[in-house]
Design brief:
- There is one protein chain.
- This protein is mainly β.
- The protein contains three helices and eleven strands, in the order βββββββαββββαα.
- The strands form three sheets. Strands 3-4-5-6-8-7 form a six-stranded mixed beta barrel. Strands 1-2 form a two-stranded antiparallel sheet. Strands 10-11 form a two-stranded antiparallel ribbon.
Length: 193
């Protein structure tokens, strides 16, 4: 004889300090009590223990927290997701934010992005001191990925994308760059331009 399973109910949102509510699946800014620095985390579970909210989180890192100097392709709004899990007091959650995948972030128009919108494309294990292998597109001779904070240009002949710096184009007038036909060095030499 079969039995009906109880349907799992989605945890209810929790209101913090009568200001805003958070729920499982939210990304949040967490304030470090000692340094007042903000960290970014993803909420996995919330439990009320002796009147206090304990929040289990998965941490995001900034590249500077992993390497002494961030590579040039790391954007200002970029975080690295980790396999570092922990618990924080609900009182240390400062506010909600949104951490998108890189491809989702690229699909959001700039007028829809808010101050607390971030993205991730790399995964890191602090215990192993290792990045998880991921495939990201790299461009031209520099062989570096895109930095969404920096403008790229597309060759009107071969339709390949290039970092502005790699083809010696200045950032001084982005409107002018978008209106002009750009021909990459490879196509220029092939077409004898």
């Amino acid at each position: 004889m079969w039995q009906m399973r109880k349907r799992r109910q989605r945890p209810k949102p929790v209101t913090l300090r009568d200001q805003f509510s958070v729920e499982v699946g939210d990304d949040v800014l967490v304030r470090n009590k000692e340094s007042n620095k903000l960290w970014v985390a993803h909420i996995l579970r919330m439990t009320k223990i002796k009147g206090r909210i304990s929040v289990e989180v998965r941490w995001y890192y900034r590249m500077e927290e992993i390497l002494s100097k961030a590579p040039s392709f790391i954007g200002d709004k970029e975080f690295i997701i980790s396999d570092h899990y922990g618990f924080v007091d609900g009182e240390t959650i400062s506010e909600k934010c949104r951490v998108h995948t890189f491809s989702a972030y690229q699909g959001i128009s700039s007028d829809k992005l808010e101050e607390n919108d971030y993205y991730w494309r790399f995964e890191y294990s602090p215990v192993l001191h290792k990045f998880k292998e991921v495939s990201v597109p790299v461009y031209w001779e520099c062989q570096l990925p895109e930095n969404p904070d920096k403008m790229m240009v597309m060759c009107s002949n071969c339709d390949k994308w290039y970092h502005r710096e790699c083809v010696n184009l200045q950032e001084s007038d982005p409107d002018k760059l978008s209106e002009m036909d750009f021909c990459c060095p490879t196509c220029t030499s092939l077409l004898n331009i």
